[in-house]
Amino acid sequence: MTDAEWERLAPLLLANPRQGGRWADHRTVINGVFFRVRTNITWRDLPPCYGNWKTVL
Questions:
Q1: What angle do CA 33, 37, 6 make, to 5 degrees?
Q2: What is the average per-residue pLDDT within 23-50?
Q3: pLDDT band of 23, cuts 50, 70, 90
Q4: Measured between alpha carbons, how far apart are the two ends of the chain, in Å?
Q5: What's the CA gap between 37 and 28, in Å, rounded?
Q6: TM spans, by residue (predicted)?
Q7: Prediction pTM value
């Protein structure tokens, strides 16, 4: 995702919740979803640079 695309999308996403654990970085998660769709791999085969596959799922 380009910086320009992220600037348009970021304000639409929720901030971290007051209670519970901290959310994963939205941009990393979204890029992980895009990578998975683009390459047609299984969720478990997602590269570690996108975080835990269960988080991106």
A1: 45
A2: 91
A3: confident
A4: 18
A5: 14
A6: none
A7: 0.77
